Amino acid sequence: MDLSDRGKNLDSEDTLRVDELETDDQHSSTLCLIGKVISNKSFNAFGFLKAMKKATNPPLGLTAKEIGKNLFSFQFWSTSDMTTVLTKEPWLFERNIVALKELEKGEQPSAVAFNEVPLWIRIYDLPIATQNEKVLLVIANKC
Fold first, then answer.
1. How far apart are CA 8 and CA 119, in angstroms?
2. Is residue 130 helix, strand or coil?
């Protein structure tokens, strides 16, 4: 096949729609996280990926790659490895928050919205009588 002729005879009706392709049923869960480093400053993407692999250290391994500006994919090989990473949030890199979202089946990584990040806060000297869910929700909504 002469590769120089590839694509010369295509017209608009020959477009392949990816969403019409059959998917492999064994991959109903993507086991993939999309991560975004929330920063306006430049940083070493390779250093970030290396640091995340070392910090997360999943027993069955992890494939990580840069897929856009400040956007990364993390492919896991077990649900428990991915869940462990999510339960250890928030993650930081060079004092920047790393937002993580699970990629849903059929979802485009570039379409993932990073509009919330779980945070831990410590409240000192909160009176015992106010240490309840109702008061904590009021405080959380003020932050």
1. 53
2. helix
Q: Is 105 helix (H, G, I), strand (E, B) or coil?
A: coil
Q: 99 phi and psi, to 5 degrees?
A: -85, 135
Tens of pLDDT, residue by residue over 40-83, are 999 999 999 999 999 999 999 999 999 999 999 999 999 999 99
Q: Which of 141, 33, 28, 27 has the alpha carbon at shortest distance from 87?
A: 33
Q: What is the pLDDT of residue 96?
A: 95
| CA atoms within 13 Å, Cβ hemisphere of 62 | 26
| Strands in 69-143 per DSSP E | 71-76, 91-93, 96-102
Q: Residue 82: count other Cβ atoms within 10 Å of its Cβ.
A: 23
- Residue type for 82, please? M
Pick from 70, 76, 61: nearest CA to 109: 70
